[in-house]
Design a protein that fits this description.
The protein is built from 28 helices and six strands. It is globular. A six-stranded mixed sheet has the order 2-1-3-4-5-6, sandwiched between helices. The N and C termini lie far apart (67 Å). The chain is mainly α.
Length: 545
């Protein structure tokens, strides 16, 4: 009996270690029926398995089991429970478990901090962190990583600086988390400093996650040459390394280089995964490489037997439609084994509008409305399309649907890093200390642009106001404010890099190109879709994004 108990326990823990959490939970239920003896150790392991697969129903059952067996004073088991509740998005139960623990060690507190951050309760996480009796590297990592995942990277960088000032130990996970934040914010100066620290601490050689994070950071900061150099210098590379490089090239419209990297990857015996193929297809889409895109798609399906995700289908439709192959794109959608989602239809509609294929745009727009999308971007695209063709009733219908369905446009936000400090702006923002100077500079610049033939595009302004007010609203778009700060805060000729959480609007795209020519600046704008490199009035996206 004892031998069988140990054998079952070993099988369950092996399944968990192998990532087969569901199978472990099923086996645990089976052996319970046979009078299996429960231990705190095994119950802790099975609870963690529940957290990995979001099996909160089973997790609650095992919580009751722990109480019945008097295991609720076991710190390891209680930590596993709060971690499980956090991963199952039940932070209230997680906090109750934490508060009821008779003793709490640093591991339990770190887990609670991480859970609070992931539940967007960052103020509570920071308060808990500040009140700890002692902190280890895991404490700092939990907070910094959690802030980064919660779109509060700027605060995460502040805590990283505080961590170093307090002399806390910096480890590999710290650097990966901070580099990830620098990637999200395109905080190049901070990212370069982190790269220097990686070299100083000896993390550069032998730690693949750090090397991959450095490649991703430089790529997302628009510095592909630096990303490529770091990639070449890596002693070891895995599929994530290659994927970061390929995706980086793709986001910057450098499709041929992305495909060259993809082919080299295969030659060197590294098998691409579904994310690699997504990056390669994206690269083909934004470089108009139709035949190459088909080759990549067919390689994925037939050579590697990878079933396409909706994102792969969306890339193919986008590639075909961008290249004006609308008939082929439409047939591709009809042959898909799954129903197209709103993102695919939105991508298709965007190309229809760009190529002025009005008949097809109406048809796709109708399907898009019927699918009741939850993203405001789809409605805005439709509204702009109807405005483009002069269909005011269509515009009114879309706006009415947004109100009826409770759809709100996500607030636009743009970041810019200057002297290692990240500044953020929302549309119409006047909270920045240099706000007055920024608006004065932009107003003067707008007069200069208008004298050169620029006419503000106010078609996307949804408020029912006069034309002058609409122009003032457009002037205050977040990307213009960020660029304005860059222009008044950096020496002439300095490259300006901004990041926007949404797609750059048409007017801002036009204005940024004009500014790059008039002010003699290279401006790099990373939006939610791709990179835009502006120089001498021209953009790398060739006005199709």
């Amino acid at each position: 009996m004892m031998h069988r108990t140990l054998s079952n326990a070993k099988t369950i823990t092996n399944l968990i270690h192998q990532g087969q959490s569901r199978q472990a939970i099923v086996l645990f239920h089976q052996v319970l029926k046979n009078g299996f003896k429960i231990t705190e150790f095994l119950l802790s392991a099975i609870v963690r398995a529940c957290g990995r697969v979001a099996a909160i129903k089973e997790g609650k059952q095992f919580h009751c089991m722990a109480i019945r067996h008097g295991f609720n004073r076991d710190m390891i088991l209680m930590t596993s429970l709060l971690d499980m509740y956090s991963k199952c998005n039940n932070i209230t139960e997680a906090r109750l478990v934490f508060d009821e623990m008779p003793q709490r060690d640093v591991i339990a507190t770190n887990s609670m901090i991480s859970g609070l951050c992931w539940s967007h309760l960052t103020l509570e996480a920071i308060e808990l962190f500040n009140n700890m009796s002692r902190r280890d590297a895991g404490s700092w990592n939990s907070l910094i990583s959690g802030l980064g995942h919660n779109s509060e990277g700027r605060t995460g960088l502040v805590f990283f600086e505080k961590m170093r000032l307090e002399g806390a130990e910096v480890d590999v996970m710290t650097m990966v988390s901070v580099l990830s934040i620098c990637s999200d914010l395109a905080a190049l100066s901070n990212g370069k400093q982190c790269h220097g620290l990686v070299i100083k601490y000896g993390f550069e050689l032998g730690y693949l996650p750090v090397g991959n994070a450095i490649i991703d950071m430089y790529a997302k900061c628009g510095c592909m040459e630096d990303a490529c150099l770091c990639f070449k210098n890596m002693p070891l590379k895995n599929v994530i390394s290659w994927t970061a490089l390929i995706t980086g090239y793709g986001k910057q419209g450098r499709g041929l280089e992305a495909l060259e990297a993809f082919d080299t990857m295969e030659v060197e015996g590294v098998a691409p995964n579904k994310i690699t193929f997504l990056g390669a297809l994206y690269a083909c889409s934004h470089a108009g490489l139709v035949q190459e895109g088909w080759r990549v798609f067919n390689t994925m399906v037939h050579k590697y037997s990878i079933a396409p995700m909706m994102e792969h289908y969306t890339c193919m439709v986008d590639l075909l439609a961008r290249s004006n192959c609308f008939s082929e794109a439409y047939k591709f959608i009809e042959r898909m084994p799954v129903k197209p989602d709103t993102r695919l239809l939105t991508a298709f509609l965007s190309s229809c509008c760009s190529h002025k294929n009005l008949e097809l745009a109406r048809s796709v727009g109708k399907k898009l409305l019927e699918s009741a999308p939850e993203e405001a971007g789809a409605y805005m695209l439709l509204s702009n399309f109807y405005g483009l063709v002069g269909d005011l009733q269509g515009v009114a219908k879309v706006r009415r649907l947004m109100l009826d369905r409770g759809i709100r446009k996500e607030k636009a936000c743009t970041w810019i890093e200057i002297n290692k400090t990240v500044h953020s702006f929302q549309s119409g923002d006047r909270s920045h200390p240099l706000s007055k100077e920024i608006y004065n500079y932009l107003q003067h610049l707008f007069k200069k642009l208008k004298s050169n033939g620029y006419v503000p595009d106010t078609s996307m302004v949804m408020q029912n106001v006069d034309e002058q007010t609409k122009e003032e609203i457009v002037l205050g778009h977040s990307e213009k404010l960020a660029i304005g700060l860059g222009l008044i805060s950096t020496p002439p000729g300095t490259r300006i890099v901004i990041v926007k959480n949404l797609r750059v609007c048409v007017d801002c795209h036009v204005v940024t190109g004009l500014i790059s020519k008039i002010e003699g600046r290279e401006i790099v704008a990373r939006d939610s879709n791709r990179f835009h490199h502006f120089k001498d009035g021209l953009c790398s996206c060739e006005n199709h994004w």
